[in-house]
Amino acid sequence: MPAGAPEFVGKETLQADSDWISAQEGRSDVARTPGLAVIRGDGIGGDVTDATLTIAAAALDAVGATGFTCDDIDAGAACFQRTGKDIEPGGEERAGDADAIFLGAIGLPSVRHPDGTEISPHLRLRERFQLYAGVRPVRAYPNTPQRLADPRAADLDLVIIRESTEGLFYSAAVHDRSPVEGDPAAPTAISDIMRISASTTRKLHEFAFRLAARRQQRGKRGRLTCVDKANVFRSQAFFRSIFDEVSKFHPDIETGYSYVDAMALDMVRRPWEFDVMVMENMFGDILSDLAGGLVGGMGMAACGEIGDENALFQPAHGSAPDIAGQDKANPLAAILSGAMMLDYLAARCDLPAYEVAAARIEDAVAAGFAANELRPMEFGGDMGTIAMTGAVLAHLQGAE
Fold first, then answer.
1. Gap between the Cα atoms of 70 and 64, Å rounded
2. Domains of the chain, CATH where assigned
3. Which contiguous run of DSSP H or E holds residue 168?
4. What is the pTM (predicted TM-score) of this model?
5. Which of the two residues, 118 and 100, has the higher pLDDT score?
6. Among 125-134, 188-197, 338-347, whose mean pLDDT is lowest?
7. Burial of residue 397 (number of CB atoms within 10 Å: 0-12, 13-18, 19+)
């Protein structure tokens, strides 16, 4: 950690996008000290988690807010390799009892289940706590790689909302749902299921419309696009029909539609014309990574996974074990995910200062890039994890 960084008890976005928190209507409880479940996980997960906890604590201190407590939970591929379990006993229950979960990264290429699939306890957490709304802000910053030549790409600012509990991930290996294995008519085939349920999809679309409304109130376009493949799959036509039902209750929100293959083209051709997009799980998994590439790389890809009672925040990048512990990881995706977490906790725990602290983090990152004082190695720069964390910390302290 940088010199002078706050120390923690235990082993832990965006003002522009804090509007996503509006989906947690009615979540305020009595003001109290938040408790975090912290899963460092694998590879660089520990490196970027340390950076996030440092910055989050500094931001809270800067606004005079009470800090949080941390409960470390061992989980991931390394845990599986040591113990045969992908999360420590009681870990899921403790995660569910926390006000929020922060996860660094999960997975190691050399550690797999016998069928070749990854160790993925975080997918089970999504399912157990029904974290249906995966929120992926996408924002371009100055002095970062611009993958598109069009100057309008420099102002890219949009949000992808990915349903995170069903869709094609419904039969992911971690859930052990493959009832169509061993079909006598196709003994050498395995089929997966794309599940779209009315209840989850309705909640997802309500979340998306509220987010679009808040962005509209903050001067953004607030246009919501339903991304699907309704022309081919009945499940996707159903997804769109529920979107249409929900839209009737939000007449002030401009809406649009795009097939997912057309959206893949438009994300490269004209992404600045979109504001909020809502889509099925697998489509969101793919397009959100594409969007991350447009603004520099996965080191900038923040993520919040929100349910009715629980929420998990994590950088969307992988564990990169080849650079773990070498002071090379870009911590900004994790730091920005931490800012999203503070926004969530502001509403959940009735702590308005947490929202202010989240805005401070976002402002510090923007100011650091504008001054060319954030130069991650991921972008060919000369700053590792510690230096990047220290630079964000300096801008936080300079804003006091």
1. 19
2. 1-130+304-400 (3.40.718.10), 146-295 (3.40.718.10)
3. none
4. 0.88
5. 100
6. 188-197
7. middle
